[in-house]
Design goal:
mainly alpha, A middle domain of Talin 1, about 60% helix, about 0% strand
């Protein structure tokens, strides 16, 4: 039995925030910051992980069925389950802290684009288990790698690959990928379930407090994982502005791309407003903190207007981002990116730095003014 071993050394990222107006940071107000943490923990984070865990369990079952009986119906069931689970992943990727940060959960689960050669090498090497993580293996694990294995460059050839002479290796690596997602999700979910009191009581304005970390993770996720990864990279915004369809999030099932970015935007809006994961309760979120601080009506209106503008611009895109880029071009995705960029600036400068007095704790080198 071969195991795929990973070793990753985290990099400390720092940056300096800047101020856009004359507002002074609020550091000593009497707002109950724990209310944000309690609502986020009980009504957003834990329910989101519960859904992902349930969907992964179902996907694991469909994986077993396909491995044991390679046929088109079982492949169709597995593909459908993968899609549903990938969509539910969008609700948890933001919360890259605690155990998730320690095990590089986000990077293991959703680094794209796939690096096909690495996946093929792992299949040829008869890899049956993925243990820990190294950056040298980015693109060969998680949802994107599973997408490659069950859709591939030629979706009509999947049955042949899994039932052919190398079929046992393909089955083993697919199972290893799914097992790794299931195991890591269980680790992260258990960590959340066992550390509630420590998390919700850490409300001070320090670099290591729960509130500061989760607000930073929220803004970083939107900036780096949504704006840049899902939209900016495919239009090569930070390069030569040449379309790069191979950079989309779900390249081998590219008509899933719009759904993934829409789900991601829902998770961003949910955390900001404090709306519960099931949509039945409007709890305490960052918007409520702004309301408490006062003199925030214009800022809140600007944020809401920008959310609406982003949603409207996303609605104009094709479901399939590869089709969008190859037929329409980059202009409509550029509109989405620029609208997201405006919201990034509002979040980082006007809300996080100027109003909350929280400094960005991650690298900022792409010109958003933060």
């Amino acid at each position: 039995m071969k195991k795929l071993l990973y070793l990753f050394i985290p990099i400390l990222l720092t940056s300096c925030g800047s101020s856009s107006d004359n507002q002074q940071p609020i550091n000593n107000d009497e707002f109950d910051r724990s209310a944000i943490l309690i609502n986020s923990y009980d009504n957003i984070i834990v329910p989101a992980y519960n859904l992902l865990s349930n969907n992964l369990s179902e996907m694991d079952t469909y994986t077993e069925a396909f491995i044991n009986n390679v046929n088109q119906q079982n492949l169709t069931d597995l593909r459908s389950s993968w899609r549903k689970t990938y969509e539910s992943w969008q609700a948890v990727e933001m919360f890259d802290l605690k155990k998730a940060e320690q095990i590089n959960y986000s990077r293991v689960s959703n680094s794209y684009p796939c690096i096909e050669n690495r996946i093929i090498e792992n299949i040829n090497d008869s890899i049956t288990e993925i243990t820990s993580f190294t950056s040298s293996m980015l693109g060969a694990t998680g949802f994107p790698a599973i997408g490659y294995m069950i859709y591939g460059p030629d979706s009509s050839n999947i049955i042949s690959l899994f039932s052919g002479s190398e079929g046992s290796n393909y089955k083993a690596y697919l199972k290893a990928l799914v097992n790794n997602l299931v195991y890591n999700t269980r680790e992260v979910s258990d960590d959340w379930n066992n550390t509630r009191s420590n998390f919700i009581s850490s409300t001070s304005n320090t670099q290591t407090s729960s509130l500061n970390i989760i607000v930073n993770d929220f803004v970083r996720y939107f900036e780096k994982k949504v704006r840049t990864a899902k939209i900016g990279n495919p239009i090569d915004y930070f390069g030569a502005f040449q379309i790069r369809p191979d950079q989309v999030e779900s390249y081998y099932k590219s008509d899933l791309c719009k759904s993934l970015v829409s789900e991601a935007m829902l998770s961003v809006k949910r955390f900001y407003t404090g709306e519960s994961f099931d949509g039945t309760n409007n709890g305490i979120g960052l918007e409520d903190y702004l309301l408490y601080l006062g003199n925030s009506d214009n800022l809140i209106s600007a944020i809401n207007d920008q959310f609406n503008d982003i949603d409207n611009k996303i609605s104009l895109l094709e479901e399939d981002f590869v089709l969008e880029l190859n037929t329409v071009g980059k202009d409509q995705m550029m509109d989405v990116f620029l609208s997201m960029q405006t919201l990034v600036t509002i979040f980082k400068i006007d809300m996080m730095s100027d109003r909350f007095g929280i400094s960005p704790d991650y690298e900022d080198n792409d010109g958003d003014g933060g």
